[in-house]
Amino acid sequence: MTEDDARRFLLLRAYEAPLAPPWTDADALAATEAAARSVGEQGGAERFLAARAAEGTARLLPREPAAGRALQATGRPRWIGAALVALALAIGLASPVLGPSKQLNLLAPPLLALLCWNLLVYAAIAAAALRRDAPPGALRRWLAGVPARVGGAAPGASATPAARFLADWSRRAAPLWSARAACWLHAAAAALVAGLLGAMYLRGLAFEYRAGWDSTFLSAEAVRALLSAVLGPASALSGIALPSADELARLRFSAGPGENAARWIHLHAITAALVVLLPRALLAVSAAWRARRLARRFPLALDDAYAQRLLRSHRGDAAAVRVLPYSYQPTAQALDGLRSVMAHSFGPRTEVQVDAPMRQGDEERLADVPGTGAAPGFVLFALSATPERETHGAVAEALPGARLLVDESGFAQRFGATRTAQRREAWTRMLAGLQRTPIFIDLAAPDLAATDAALQRG
């Protein structure tokens, strides 16, 4: 998918998983049918999902202003990069880089601080590359605040669909925006140096600058060694010779007016071009290529329940769901509720296989239960059971790919809201120690939208 395809796909997903007004099941069906007609039966998965997202957002946006604002907020502001580069160039051209004295001090060249800063930047980039760090940490934090700034609410379980989309997009788009920000910053740094070099030559045309030096501690030989280390590559590349120690001794400002600064301006300009202008331009091109690649082939995984449900609907396939009750025999009403939940989350043709309940001590059967793969695996517990790390926790640990459902059927009616909350907390606390999160559901009267949202969160 392209960047724009992915944005529309995730926006529509925020209104469909779970279903949120003004989007309806009829709208979802209409978008699916329109996309299927558009791409045909043999259309690829990404092409179908992108077409469906385009059809769906075309129906959603006229009815939901918040969705339109969210989509606009996540769009690419194409003017920022050009404005930043233009501003940097203007600042460089306007800078009195050679100073008002019309003297160029060879031991304090005007671009020295800029050269040192850029060398530090290159060192930081190299260190981050060696550590394989992801540089956009600050960018991710900034993007994470977009939902609150645009949608007026922080993302969370009760957030609006638009805010959930903004939070989701900020996380997924961080690498792309990091590459774009790197491109803009590197290009701006190159433009700043180009402006400074232009300012030097423009002022050199209108005024005569004199070059020389003075030092309390350094001799002419030491100054020549220092200048050879800094300006030697530029001298070798341009053929402009550096003066000897005797010539440098005559360039002391205390001994005379120095010399015309033309060759020193040339040498410093070439050095700045070698150290800043060329590397920054190459880094900007590299970041632009990376951003273009990410924008044209956005890294969006399509293996979650939402995408797979849409693809099965397009292909006419049926999902196969296997559920393993543990130390619990679901009632007929609970089984009907379970099938309703699976049909709502994985498609109306979902085939639900409910295994015979596993009793404590039957752990040898765990090897036969698929926790990963094409068929989603589920383990069904009962809230009425006291959660135990040695039994319930052992099953959860043995099936790391299975989703953990906890059926609340009848518990609240028998014991009240306080006991239900306490028991939920006990289950959550026990499974949190295994880095697992249970999904609580009343299979006698399931909340399909809430359960679907929990399943979509992974």
Automatic annotation (TrEMBL):
Keywords, ordered alphabetically: Membrane, Transmembrane, Transmembrane helix
InterPro entries with a match to the protein in the record: DUF2868
Membrane-spanning segments: 79-99, 111-130, 179-202, 265-289
Lineage top rank: taxon: Bacteria
Keyword Cell cycle attached: no
Protein known as: DUF2868 domain-containing protein
